[in-house]
Amino acid sequence: MEDNTVLVMKRIRKEFQGVIALNEVDFVLRKGEVHILLGENGAGKSTLVKILSGAYQMTSGKIFLFNKQVNIKSPRQAQELGIGIIYQELNLIPYLSAAENIFLGREITNKFGIIDKKETLDSTNKMLKELGLEIDCDIPVINFGIAQQQMIEVAKALSLDAKILIMDEPTSALSDTEVKQLFQMIRNLKQRGVSVIYISHRLDELFEIGDRVTVLRDGIVVGTKDISDTTKTELIKMMVNRELTEHFPKRSALIGEEILRVEKLTQKNGINDISFTLNRGEVLGIAGLLGSGRTELARAIFGIDKYDSGNIYLRRKLQKIKSPKDAINQRIGFITEDRKSQGLVLILSVKENISLTNLTSFSGFGFIKSKEENKEAEEFINRLKIKTPTLDQKVIYLSGGNQQKVVLAKWLSKKADIFIFDEPTRGIDIAGKVEIYNLINQLASEGVGIIMISSELPEILGMSDRIIVMNKKKIAGEIPLKSATQELIMKYAIGA
Ligand SMILES: Nc1ncnc2c1ncn2[C@@H]1O[C@H](COP(=O)(O)OP(=O)(O)OP(=O)(O)O)[C@@H](O)[C@H]1O
Ligand SMILES: [Mg+2]
Fold first, then answer.
1. pTM metric for this prediction
2. Topology (CATH level 3) of domain 5-240
3. Which of 196, 382, 429, 467 has its CA 20 to 30 A from that of 409?
């Protein structure tokens, strides 16, 4: 064992009723390195780190921490061993401050046993400052963006003296500027000798932040490489076991008549004076930073949230959309960014989720469609390569990316004239992305109008016919594809 080795996982095996999620996996983590875990949806990445964080028990295998064999039985024990994990869904309590969140359950008290607020705030400030974050530690964390909340979580992990920090898709909900912030913090951590296990589907960032990468495929380690000694092409090949390039398929859709027009749409505390049109066969990209109002706009059009003034015209007729049900009746589909709370019924099967007629969470009901429609659902499963042992597997047991694919399949199996995609490829692996782009193009060529909200600029540039950039709940600019560049989009997005 090399002496800068922090962690060794040996022949880790994990089975879930007949599904082999990890098959004799070996993994070595060195001191102060950022070690990337890479692999397609369902490859076993989250399962591996959940074994480390005590969330899952391995079926067999051995774990050595600092040369000593350990048995991680619970999340609390992992914490005591110096292993911290930041899940994609944040775990802070929204209405507590940063200081209260960090010291939750182990409050700093004075000699009378009363919480020492000053001391708590001082230590929190010091910790966050070390991470490069200067914020008010005394106000509810809900006031901060996701990137900042993530840093508060990191501070919490470090305050528990984490030597190993696990991040499972930390950037999937972040925009470019926030990713930069996070990376700066990771670099600081490395200097302090903390080792980071980092999971992401964004290949470009691996080369920016990673030291080594381990590729998993179907629960097996394909190999471990130094980042400086590999290429994107090689990694993709290792992941998918065939040649595949990251690309945006060409589309030849004809842009037709207007299908949606939004005029001066305004909410009292939300979107402000939004006007645009969408035509049949067109992909309209909406870019902007987190909180710029993109999702709020989508929710207003889909009838989830009310708007206070302005008009929506569908097929050139003024329409009042008061609820998602109205929107669905008007043949609008909305693929939300938040798959867990809005897209899926986790305790139902893959098949049931896809064939539910109405979104249960919206209507409270759902009934199973006819056989033919079930068959259509099966086609989507094949097309999107949803990794599931059977069609009857409960969605809750699928990997994160595969759950996202089910959300897509569920919506795409319904006929609509307008689709709003909010971060359609978040958390989806490279082969799945290309499939989704193909599907979007196919819809466009059938005359569907598509609004695509995305934080990934290459995706916006590669897929859109026209681009709208939002800033502070307003449209900051509309850019025709011809003149669009990442720089120009960012300029509008930050309001420059
Ligand atoms: N609790 C569970 N019960 C049954 N099967 C599970 C459970 N958790 C994970 N699996 C299965 O184990 C395999 C690996 O899943 P895992 O979540 O580790 O994938 P992943 O690499 O993190 O994928 P993604 O990129 O989509 O997040 C998948 O086939 C998944 O369906
Ligand atoms: Mg995962």
1. 0.80
2. Rossmann fold (3.40.50)
3. 467
21 lines ligand 1 (CB under 6 A): yes
Specify the residue with its C-alpha closest to ligand 1, atom 29: 42
pLDDT per residue over 332-383, tens digit each?
Answer: 998 887 666 556 777 888 888 887 654 433 333 444 445 666 677 788 888 8
Instruction: Look up tokens 């179907």; give the residue.
Output: 218
* Apex 199 CA angle, 194 and 204, nearest 5: 105
Any idea where the domains of the chain sit in the sequence?
A: 5-240, 258-493
User: Which of 244, 249, 219 minimizes the C-alpha distance to 234?
Assistant: 244
Beta strands in 182-316 (DSSP E): 195-199, 212-217, 220-226, 258-266, 274-279, 283-288, 309-314
Report the atom number in ligand 1 closest to the C-alpha of 37.
Answer: 21
User: For 376-399, what is each residue's pLDDT tens digit?
Assistant: 778 888 888 888 888 888 988 888
- Do 164 and 194 touch, CB atoms closer than 8 A? yes
CATH of 258-493 given 3.40.50.970, 3.90.1150.10, 3.30.70.1120, 3.40.50.300? 3.40.50.300
